[in-house]
Amino acid sequence: MEATRSARPLVSVVAPCYNEHEVLREFHARVSAACRPLTGSYEIVLVDDGSKDGTWAIIETLAESDPHVVGVQLLRNHGHQLAATAGLHIASGQRVMLIDADLQDPPELLGDMMRLMDEGADVVYGQRAARAGETWFKRATAAGFYRLLTRLTDVSIPRDTGDFRLMSRRVVDTFLLMPERQRFIRGMVSWIGGRQVALPYERHARYAGTSKYPLSKMIRFATDAITSFSTVPLRLAVWVGLATASFSMLLLLYALYQWTQNVVVAGWASIICAVAFFGGLQMLILGVFGEYLGRLVHEAKGRPLFMVKAIRAGRRRHEVPSHFSRMEPAMRDDVVSTWSGGG
After folding, report:
1. Do residues 33 and 150 both lie within one domain?
2. For residue range 50-76, what is the model confidence (pLDDT) as tens digits?
3. Do residues 116 and 197 lie in contact, with contact meaning Cβ atoms separated by under 8 Å?
4. CA-CA distance, 85 to 223, in Å (whole number)?
5. Please, which of 48, 184, 206, 343 could form a disulfide with 225 given CB 3.0 to 4.6 Å?
6. Are 97 and 107 members of one domain?
7. Are residues 168 and 274 in the same domain?
8. pTM score
9. Would 250 be classed as within a structural domain?
10. Cβ distance 238 to 166 under 8 Å?
């Protein structure tokens, strides 16, 4: 066990990349500059999430020229959360920093994060004190989302945080045992527990390129977060259904009373409004139940979370970690069959 631990790099930096060819070389330079003063034992895991530009070609070049770089190419675009999960499966460091490749989160904070972890933290997460280069709409919706999520979930998820964090090996290994498909990494890590410490920082504007999170993806991400960590919408649907049924019963009693008094209200408008109201409410409640049911169907299928097309590690042998093969046997076979890093 001690030999295995010492053979691990001290720190792994994991970065999912989607169409980031404009920023990758600068990202690699800054991450390397952040790692070198701390240790010579580090690795940079760059995960190409099915990019359509020259991202993978640049990753291959970096892996060939720098023995610290491990390139991972996914078979198709899986989305940010699954691409990050793939990188965490591959990363073998005693500590693992998860960061986006767009340089909005400064890799230079690695030293501060390492120091806080030396003091006993299990997770050090970046907490945004300021957000440069973002519209007022995105800042407002993000603030509203985190405050809503805090009220809906039983797990304490810090506000104004992303996936930018440094995690101990114990936390990463526990995270890799969690098999759900609709992943909300910051919530999953918060659920694990341990001593989790905030590191306030100023988030920068993108170094280059455009945001990979338009409004549609933000809504889908928020839906995954809420349905993954809260059953409050289900309980709310039940209470709304009970309230509506009670209101309907009162309307029925009122209608019967009016009938006994020979008071008949002529007109179809009131009937149409009532039918439309209750019909729409029922469809809303069914939609909430359907959202959760759909997720259960996806989980029951048990398909691999992601498929790896190739791994590049230049002249350095980079073994597939044992937990990687244990979690996804089909995925492991694909990695082994396409392995091309020397040895």
Report:
1. yes
2. 999 899 999 999 999 999 999 999 999
3. yes
4. 19
5. 184
6. yes
7. no
8. 0.69
9. yes
10. no
